[in-house]
Every structure is written in structure tokens, then in C-alpha cells.
Amino acid sequence: MEPFWELNLEDIKGSFSSAHFVLGSSSCEPLHGHDYTVKIAVRGVLNANQIVIDFLELKPLLRNITKKLDGKFLLPTKNPDLIVSENTDQVILTIPKVAKKYVFPIQDVVFLPIQNSTVEEIAAYICSELKQLVEGINTGLRISVWVGETPFQGVWYHS
Fold this sequence. Notes:
The longest helix is centred in the last third of the chain and has 16 residues. Helix 1 packs across helix 2. 19% of the residues lie in helices and 40% in strands. The protein is elongated, with a radius of gyration of 17 Å. The mean pLDDT is 93. It is α+β, with helices and mostly antiparallel strands. Strands 1, 2, 3, 4, 8, 9 and 10 form a seven-stranded mixed sheet that branches. The protein has a three-stranded antiparallel sheet with strand order 5-6-7, with no helix packed on it. It starts with a strand and ends with a strand. It has one domain: 2-Layer Sandwich (Tetrahydropterin Synthase, Chain A), CATH 3.30.479.10.
């Protein structure tokens, strides 16, 4: 097996604060928010410059992804239990099975291609977005993303 290196990055500017709720099979959490922390591990072989990836290239990629999530409501667009309608300035969410309805200013919502706004799915989303951006810098890298709701509670997603 060929040796590999693992670069780890935790960038305070790569963290974000967002609101969400999680839909269960018969319930819906109250709307609430977290100060999410994000950590990245990038594993691979060294490139021609003898690095896995340059921190100076990686940090802005992460920041661009999390900046889109910061200060927003995380809307899972693939959830079959959510009815989403929009007009020019509002997003209306209806959850019939729990008789809830939310109205958000459209500029306060980020539409995510996930089923539920859990840390598991948020980590997978960030990893997918980051992987696409990193491919042009160094191919064949394996990326892992940690998303934490608290410093002691979160999840690692490994690509």
C-alpha cells in the first residue's frame, strides 16, 4: 500500500450559524439554531510541490461553501413531508403530518439538496461541494468533513 498524508483543517471562518428543524417519522423538532463547527481532513499523496493541498487554496473553498449557509434557514428540498411554495419574497413551508406552517423571507433560506437538515446530511453536502472544488487542484484526494452542533457533538462524513 502506498503511503498517504492527511491534512487537517479547522478554520473558525469556515464555521457557520444556521436555523433548522429535523422531521422525524411522526414529529417535527421546534425551529432552532446552532453555531456549527466544520473540520476537514484531506487524505492523499503529495503533489509536485510535496503537499497534499495548499491550506491557502483549501480555506477559501470551505469558506465559500459555509458562507452560503451562515445566517440562513437550512431547507431540505428532498423531504417528501415538506410542501414548499415560493413567491417573489417568501418561502412557505407546510408540514401536514404535524400541522405546522412556516413563512420565511426568501433571502433567509438556503435550499439544500438533502432530505433532512441533520448534521449527517449537512456534512455529506459540504463534503460533496468541497470535493467538486478540490478535484481541479489535486485529483484522487479523499475528503472527510466534520460538522458539529456543539464542540462535543457532531459527525464525520468520509468520501
